[in-house]
Write a structure and sequence with these properties.
Layout: E1 3-8, H1 15-27, E2 30-36, H2 47-58, E3 64-69, H3 73-79, E4 84-89, H4 92-109, E5 112-117, H5 127-135, H6 146-158
Parallel strand pairs: 1-2, 1-4, 2-3, 4-5
This protein binds 4'-phosphopantetheine.
């Protein structure tokens, strides 16, 4: 079985993430979207909330599973028998750090990284930017799924 992992913070998932996840789901048998548990950084959404939202917006793809991990991504890959990481590259500025991580992950565990070029419609997207725009009342429709937009507005209203 050709199984790959799409790792990230997904706080929250954007249409840019979904573009990569859906394209990976057409190329591989199973795509595991895994959310980093980062105890040093508090997100807008809890890891469980992010997982729940990811589950909702990826359920249309029959072969996408959602999970969480902490520690090294390569350890998660080893434990779950996943030989390949799929990442989106938005711009040249992403490349330097992504290349470094890909080389380290290969050095540590022989895990390969496959890069996909982001759809230009979403190449400027980042979860942090989405949160900032939504916080000040900007329109993020078309950049995140409707469900995520609703959750964002609701969460930002509370804070
Ligand atoms: O969505 P993000 O925050 O850009 O995702 C970054 C992520 C989670 C993919 C990256 O930080 C990661 O893989 N973290 C796990 C820790 C790890 O394995 N570090 C060594 C990388 S070489």
């Amino acid at each position: 079985m050709r199984r790959v992992v799409c790792p990230g913070s997904f706080d929250p998932v954007t249409n840019g993430h979904l573009d990569i996840i859906s394209r990976a789901s057409r190329l591989y048998d199973e795509v595991v979207v895994t959310v980093l548990i980062n105890k040093t950084k508090q997100g807008l959404f809890t890891v469980d909330e992010r997982i729940e939202m990811l589950g909702e917006v990826t359920k249309v793809y029959g072969n996408v599973k959602v999970d969480k991990f902490h520690g090294l991504l390569v350890d998660y890959c080893r434990q779950n028998d996943i030989p390949v990481i799929v990442k989106g590259l938005r711009a040249v500025s992403d490349y330097e750090y992504e290349l470094q991580m890909a080389q380290m992950n290969h050095r540590l565990a022989g895990v390969e990284t496959m890069f996909m070029s982001t759809n230009p419609l979403y190449s400027f997207l980042a979860s942090s930017l989405i949160k900032e725009v939504a916080k000040y009342g900007g329109d993020v429709s078309g950049l995140v799924p409707e469900l995520i937009q609703e959750r964002l507005i609701e969460r930002l209203r509370q804070s």
